[in-house]
TrEMBL record:
UniProt cross-references to Gene3D superfamilies, sorted A to Z: P-loop containing nucleotide triphosphate hydrolases (3.40.50.300)
Top-rank taxon: Eukaryota
PANTHER family: URIDINE KINASE (PTHR10285)
Provenance organism: Dreissena polymorpha (Zebra mussel)
Substrates-to-products reaction catalysed: cytidine + ATP = CMP + ADP + H(+); uridine + ATP = UMP + ADP + H(+)
Entry similarity comment: Belongs to the uridine kinase family.
Pathway(s): Pyrimidine metabolism; UMP biosynthesis via salvage pathway; UMP from uridine: step 1/1; Pyrimidine metabolism; CTP biosynthesis via salvage pathway; CTP from cytidine: step 1/3
Pfam family, one: PRK
Source lineage: Eukaryota, Metazoa, Spiralia, Lophotrochozoa, Mollusca
Name the record gives this protein: uridine/cytidine kinase
Length: 253
């Protein structure tokens, strides 16, 4: 596993004014959140107090839009399509991520999968050096996709994903087996094939087997550490500038 190296020195005046944005896409239960947590942990950030974190994770699920009464009934019955791009509040997602990219503090909704709705409480995301934005459709919307300096696609076998989704959704998301399987065959799988899988081509790095792939995760962590090392700051700024103008894609080398 990668050593933490001098990543921890990035703070105060040394902090990069605009964060390095990493998009993490992949099918449901592919391990996107787990991969992000591992990256954060390897960068020595899991024990750091929220406000001081140099690496933060934002979930696209926070931007599921509010549903109308009819849609709420469908969601409760397990027939609403949460895997279609129209299930997200694109405008809010872009506005918020634009502010994050500018290094601003933002408030994002807390989403509840049991209520299929946002909670009244919000979570604050403080400026950080690295922001990981994970979700099934983070590469689908061009305005969002173009914001990322690095794009990762977590590629896990569909049978493994379905079995993990069954276990997770029965335990954590208040669903029964019938509903999970019906939702999967009617919406989740077709939408994955139509909207998520075709975005794999935009990835700079594809991570087969998700969080089990310690070699890939280790290489990604080393790449981030290298880009953010104080001695490489000028190069990183230049790369980010080119990336902003669309001429640079961060690839492992
Ligand atoms: N490598 C793994 N081995 C076993 N279980 C895993 C692994 N990666 C993820 N999981 C489990 O699978 C479920 C989905 O993982 P998660 O990271 O939340 O996926 P995603 O964010 O892509 O939906 C979670 O319950 C998680 O603990
Ligand atoms: O209220 C909801 C909202 C979404 N879902 C499902 O969640 C996944 C996306 O989250 P992952 O963590 O990437 O699995 C998506 O496939 C939706 O079907 C839900 O079940 N309920």
């Amino acid at each position: 596993m990668a050593a933490v190296s001098d990543f921890g020195r990035l703070n105060g005046a040394d902090r990069i004014p605009r964060p390095f944005l990493i998009g993490v896409a992949g099918g449901t239960a592919s391990g996107k959140s787990t991969v992000c947590s591992k990256i954060t942990q390897l960068l020595g950030q899991s024990e750091v107090e929220t406000r001081q974190r140099q690496v933060v994770i934002v979930s696209q699920d926070s931007f599921y839009r509010e549903l109308n009464a009819e849609e709420k009934e469908m969601a409760a019955a397990g027939t609403f399509n949460f895997d279609h791009p129209s299930a997200f509040d694109l405008q809010q997602m872009i506005q918020t991520m634009t502010l994050v990219a500018e290094g601003k503090t933002v408030e994002i909704p807390n989403y509840d999968y049991i209520l299929n709705a946002r909670l009244p409480s919000k979570q604050k995301v403080y400026p950080a050096d690295v922001v990981l934005f994970e979700g099934i459709l983070v590469f689908y919307f061009p305005e969002l996709r173009d914001m990322f300096h690095m794009k990762l696609f977590v590629d896990t076998d569909p049978d493994t994903r379905l079995s993990r989704r069954v276990l997770r959704d029965t335990k954590e998301r208040g669903r029964d087996l019938d509903q999970i399987l019906n939702m999967y065959t009617s919406h989740v799988k077709p939408a994955f094939e139509e909207f998520c899988l075709p975005t794999k081509k935009y990835a700079d790095v594809i991570i087969p087997r998700g969080a089990d792939n310690t070699v890939a995760i280790d290489l990604i962590v080393q790449h981030i550490q290298e880009l953010l090392r104080p001695s490489n700051r000028d190069t990183t700024r230049r790369l980010r500038h080119h990336s902003d103008s669309g001429s640079f894609a961060s690839r492992p080398h």
